Recover the amino acids of this structure.
């Protein structure tokens, strides 16, 4: 466990720092269903309404890439690095993310219900209206990120933390948490699912801020009169 916490604090890597950087080949073509993309460099491309369901991206890098719409159901992203990537919409239902590093990127209106994320590192990303309902997140860090209208309803979060991040109108209803660390979050704007915070760790200050909603969930009336 301590080893993983050190990873959570690490700075993001540059493209040249990737162990497979020297083997990357520039991408030139179209994404396709079930495609295999191994040690590929995606640089500056724009993918509009692509159909790449079941595709596999392995030891690949994405820089300044824009995905607009498209279907990526059950796609697999393994040991990938993304920097400056924009996702506008897009269906990534039940996609799998393993050992992924996502930096300065902005998914907006992106659907990831039922996705699996294991050892994924978000750094200075803006997640806006992202659907992670019933997703499974294990050892995932959101570092200095903004999460606005992100939906974790019914998701399973294990070993997840939010150092330096801002949460705005985030939903956790019926989520299941274990070793979730909220102490480093700059703000906890939770719109639903206060009762699902069982298994999370908060600071004393955060507890005071959350107390009115905890009381409401428990049916406790606070009356100083």
């Amino acid at each position: 466990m301590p080893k993983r916490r050190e990873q959570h604090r690490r700075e993001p890597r540059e493209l040249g720092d990737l162990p497979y950087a020297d083997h990357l080949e520039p991408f030139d073509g179209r994404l396709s269903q079930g495609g295999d993309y191994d040690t590929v460099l995606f640089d500056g491309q724009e993918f509009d309404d692509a159909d790449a369901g079941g595709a596999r991206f392995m030891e690949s890098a994405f820089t300044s890439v824009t995905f607009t719409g498209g279907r990526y159901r059950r796609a697999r992203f393994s040991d990938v690095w993304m920097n400056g990537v924009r996702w506008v919409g897009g269906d990534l239902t039940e996609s799998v993310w393993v050992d992924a590093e996502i930096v300065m990127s902005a998914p907006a209106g992106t659907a990831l219900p039922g996705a699996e994320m294991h050892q994924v590192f978000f750094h200075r990303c803006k997640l806006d209206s992202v659907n992670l309902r019933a997703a499974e997140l294990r050892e995932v860090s959101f570092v200095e990120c903004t999460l606005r209208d992100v939906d974790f309803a019914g998701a399973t979060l294990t070993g997840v933390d939010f150092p330096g991040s801002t949460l705005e109108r985030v939903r956790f209803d019926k989520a299941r948490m274990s070793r979730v660390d909220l102490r480093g979050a700059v703000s906890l704007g939770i719109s639903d699912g206060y009762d699902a915070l069982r298994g999370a760790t908060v600071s004393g200050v955060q507890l005071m801020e959350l107390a009115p909603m905890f009381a409401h969930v428990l049916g406790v009336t606070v009356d100083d009169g």
